[in-house]
């Protein structure tokens, strides 16, 4: 691939940057302080010495919320006023990791994964080894401390009665569980959460306020109460409630330091948001990469989010189904893997969270890393099918696995982590802002998965679109973030990107 720099340099610097006041253990300590507050408050709620009935712990993407949730669950099970607790989430993909992490801490007999009838055999062996898996309430061991299920399973018709019959009541004397923990709480709409509220008298919701909800919010169909929308995230009803304790986790672990301005653009109303990774903690080792393409990957490796506009491509099938643009992505990634590129990370101390240990981790393709090195994200299934073809060809050519490179829709990838994200911008080729391409959560998920670098690609025209298209109104009812983004918010987010345009019309 031939890439030529202009006389003024290749990438224009972002309009908005952020360095952060705290890094390393100073930033991590801020999350620890909130976790300590949450721990003390939950203990007081269980003891009846606090008037609070609900706890909402808000986390930005990659803030380490799972660690805090696991801690709160473990402490609740040891409280003298708690017999057992329930944990719910929207998908099996969320409940299974919870069962693994808690089963490893509390023991297999104490942690139950409660699944849909007839699906116990579908649960991976890794889960079955560390947690008890059952599909009937009657099979839940009475001595179990934690029962985990999707909101659909807990909310099935008659399930509450079956759980009460099988387990009796918790220490509260009325409900089978003493606390209902909700993972990714802002992903669960009100009409689903309403079905599980009587599982426990106390609720503790933890999650990312900026992700995609399971159902996009439209006109309010609930005519009896204009302030209630069954399709919005359930915690939004309680954020200003006097019996709800709410806090934000003010530091993020996932992103490189150069992404901090982008993270802050997605959470502009937060009092503070800092990055555990300091400048220099994350890097991309480009190996033997040719100088031209290396100029692109070097920019991505700075940790500053990068937007690359590609001019001169053949016409696309549709705005968000762009095979020629995906072909350019394939060329970039072919060079990436041909050069034996690796991701470099500072290692942090096990005993003092966030403190540099003085050593480095170097991860490259065909290693034993858990998260993919590269993830290609797009919005439409057809476009992801094209990306999957790219992945298959690269895997065959370089002997790669799904731990090295994967493709996914943005919606399916929320909650995941990867080293480098290569994403087609949701507004690529668009002529107007609509409910789908301008959705807050879709853009937020695409931008906040990466630990080392974000490369967003699009055809030229996004900045003109944002300058000329009518602004869309924000979502009503005080939703977290603005799920239908007005153009000004898109512009605020893009201001954190380094940008460049390449014309490939002469590349044959």
Low-confidence stretches: 2-9, 476-483
Structural class: alpha/beta
Q: Helix proportion of residues, in percent?
A: 25-40%
Please count the beta strands (DSSP E, at least 2 residues each).
19
* Overall geometric form: globular
Q: Helix segment count? A: 15
What is the radius of gyration? 24 Å
Nearest-integer average pLDDT: 90
β-sheet strand percentage: 15-25%
Mind summarizing the main beta sheet? 8 strands, parallel
Strand order of the largest sheet: 4-3-5-2-6-7-1-8
Explain what you see.
- The protein is α/β, with parallel strands linked by helices.
- It has helices at about 25-45, 65-75, 90-105, 125-130, 150-155, 160-165, 190-195, 260-265, 290-300, 325-340, 380-400, 410-415, 440-445, 460-470, 485-495; strands at about 55-60, 85-90, 110-115, 130-135, 145-150, 180-185, 200-210, 245-250, 250, 275, 280-285, 305-310, 340-350, 355-365, 375-380, 405-410, 420-425, 450-460, 500-505.
- The strands form 4 sheets. It has an 8-stranded parallel beta sheet. A 6-stranded parallel beta sheet has the order 16-15-17-18-12-19.
- The chain is globular.
- Mean pLDDT is about 90; it is low at about 1-10 and about 475-485.
Topology:
Blueprint: H1 24-47, E1 54-59, H2 65-77, E2 85-89, H3 92-106, E3 111-114, H4 125-130, E4 132-134, E5 146-150, H5 151-154, H6 159-167, E6 179-183, H7 190-193, E7 202-208, E8 244-249, E9 251-252, H8 260-266, E10 274-275, E11 282-285, H9 291-301, E12 306-311, H10 323-338, E13 342-348, E14 356-364, E15 374-378, H11 381-398, E16 405-409, H12 410-413, E17 418-424, H13 440-447, E18 450-458, H14 462-468, H15 487-494, E19 498-503
Parallel strand pairs: 1-7, 1-8, 2-5, 2-6, 3-4, 3-5, 6-7, 9-10, 12-18, 12-19, 15-16, 15-17, 17-18
Antiparallel strand pairs: 11-13, 13-14
Helix pairs in contact: 1-2, 2-3, 10-11
